[in-house]
Predict the structure.
Amino acid sequence: MIRVAPLGRSVLVQFGLILLLAAAYAGAARTSHLLRGFPMHGLAAQASIVWFPAGIALAAMLLGGVRLAPGIALGAFATAYSVDGLVFLAAASALGATVSAVTAAWWLKRQPGFSLQLDQSRHLVSLAGIGAFVAPTLAATIDMAAAFLIHLLPWREGLVLWVMQWESNALGVLLIAPVVLTWLRADANRQPSASLVAALLSLQLGVGAVVALRTGSSAGALVYLTLALVVA
């Protein structure tokens, strides 16, 4: 019988978590691709109304730390490469997704009194402000800069796509990250506050309203409604 040293087991567990995160990222990306917005051409055709992997990535960085960052990079690279087949763009997508999630987690953990349980409304506000509205600008900027460098799209279309990508990442964080954090860090002996429940429901309804207004297919609306029922 072969015995694995504690250090070896730790490495195997770490490697397994990274692969699991990469698979979760790629799977969420496939679901997000069902939520396409208005028909466009070029890179804009890949844009989704809600980018679920952004929420998964941020939650993973907050819960597991930067040691899981390779999982985000691997999942983002595989997702982007499977769509356009361009290594440079896939690498830029991996860099943007990783930098965005790591930066948001680093910033949030340095907020005074910030709790991963989101047991106060102000924690949810911090998560939304930093994780959903500020950090996604990094991913959108890196992706668009890469596209400009290889002259893949004109600047007008690039600006439109930047806004679409920022919006989809922001909505993905708002929908997924709070639910994952409150679910995995929940205290069985303490019920969440009414204000927190109300805030989470407001996020669900807000994201759902955007999806309903922007999604051009019934399949996309069905995907969101199904996910909302699961995470509610």
In short: DSSP finds nine helices and no strands in the chain. The mean pLDDT is 78. The CA atoms of residues 93 and 143 lie 6 Å apart. Residues 155-184 form the longest helix (30 residues).
